[in-house]
Design goal:
The radius of gyration is 11 Å and the shape is globular. The longest helix is centred in the N-terminal third of the chain and has 10 residues. It is built from three helices and three strands, in the order αβββαα. By secondary structure, it is of the alpha+beta class. Strand 2 and strand 3 form a beta hairpin.
Length: 74
Amino acid sequence: MKVPSLNYDRVVRALKRDGWVVVRQRGSHIRLHKHGPEGALKLIVPAHKPIKRSTLSHILKQARLTVEEFAALL
């Protein structure tokens, strides 16, 4: 499955469903944190419409999610 091209608000909403919390937004960058058994994970999501597929791919790797898991959260 290919990484979809989505707007930032849909990406942030899907990550929130996975347990991520928006910590702050500064300019066009949204910072999210998630606490897990291996410690705190951090993500930066650009507030772009749409987010490039390559950028979203890197975000999913940092979030430790597969494309299929992410698609289920949408």
